[in-house]
Amino acid sequence: MPDAGRPVPGIIRAAGAVLWRDGGNGPEVALIHRPSHDDWSFPKGRLKRGEHVLRAAVREVEEETGVPPRLGRRLPASTYPKDDRVKRVDYWAARAVADASAFAPFTPNDEVDRLEWLPFDRAARRLTRSHDVDLLNEFAGGPLRTWPLVILRHASAGEKRDWAGADELRPLDFRGRAEAVDLAGLLAAFGPVRIVGSATARCLETVLPYARSEGLPVATDAAFTIGETDADRACRRLFDLVGDGVPTVVCTHGEIVADLVSGLCRELGEKVPEDPALEKSEFWTAHLSGREIAALERH
C-alpha cells in the first residue's frame, strides 16, 4: 500500500504504465521503441520538478503513445541504479480511453519512433529487459478491469476555533483552494467518477474544481457529514456505494476517513493499513474488482 505521491530525497523519480486495450483476439498492451536505447519498453518518463506522480504517469503515457490513459491498479515499482543514484519508476495498469481514436495519432519522434500493440505472449518476447517482462506478468496475473473508490479528506479550511460562523459553512482557506485545484488534475487520472460528499462547505469546495472540469454533479450525503453521522453509519453507506460498482470519490472529514478505510479493508478481506488516517487533501484509492481490493494506494 505505497504512498506513491510523496517525494523521496536522493531518488530519481519516474512514472509510467502498462497501457492496454481490447484487441480483436483479446487484450493488447502498448510497447514503445526508443531509438536512443534501441529497446522496447513500456511508456514512462521522469517527473518534472514539483510534479505529482499521478500527473506524470498520465502525461508520459499520452506523450509517448498519443493515447490518453485511465489509471487502474497500482503495479510494482521498478528500482535500479542510474548515474550513481537510484531511479524509481512507479507503474500503473492503464486502460486506453474508449474514444482514443479522436485524439492525435502516434507520431514518431527522436525519443519514441515506434508504437506497437501486442498480445501478452508476443509482448513478453518483444520486451528488452527482464524487469519489464516481470511487470507484464504481474499485470497479466491480476484483474484487467478495476474501478476506483477514492476516500478523500477535504482540503485546508483553517482552524475551527478561528471560525465564528456555523461549522458547516466554514470554507476552504487560500491554501485549501489551491489544493482543490491540484486535486482536480489528480482525480482526473482515474477518469470520471461519481462524486459524493459531506454536506459542508469545505468538502463541497474541495471537489468543486474536479466536478466543474469533468462536468459532473456532486451529491451530498449525511452519512459522510460530521455532526450528522458516526463510524458505523458512514461505513454502511460506503459499503452500499461499493455494491453499486460505480467509480466513486467520497469527500469527508478527518474524523471519519480512518474508520472508512479500515472498515472497507475489513469488509473486503484486505489488510488494514498501519496508518489509515489522512492529512487534509490526501486520499486513498482502492482499485476494486468485484468484492476484492486489487490495489490500495495513498496520495
UniProtKB/TrEMBL annotation:
<feature type="domain" description="Nudix hydrolase">
    <location>
        <begin position="10"/>
        <end position="141"/>
    </location>
</feature>
<dbReference type="InterPro" id="IPR000086">
    <property type="entry name" value="NUDIX_hydrolase_dom"/>
</dbReference>
<dbReference type="Pfam" id="PF00293">
    <property type="entry name" value="NUDIX"/>
</dbReference>
<dbReference type="InterPro" id="IPR020084">
    <property type="entry name" value="NUDIX_hydrolase_CS"/>
</dbReference>
<dbReference type="InterPro" id="IPR051325">
    <property type="entry name" value="Nudix_hydrolase_domain"/>
</dbReference>
<dbReference type="Pfam" id="PF00300">
    <property type="entry name" value="His_Phos_1"/>
</dbReference>
<dbReference type="InterPro" id="IPR015797">
    <property type="entry name" value="NUDIX_hydrolase-like_dom_sf"/>
</dbReference>
<protein>
    <submittedName>
        <fullName>NUDIX domain-containing protein</fullName>
    </submittedName>
</protein>
<keyword id="KW-0378">Hydrolase</keyword>
<dbReference type="InterPro" id="IPR013078">
    <property type="entry name" value="His_Pase_superF_clade-1"/>
</dbReference>
<dbReference type="InterPro" id="IPR029033">
    <property type="entry name" value="His_PPase_superfam"/>
</dbReference>
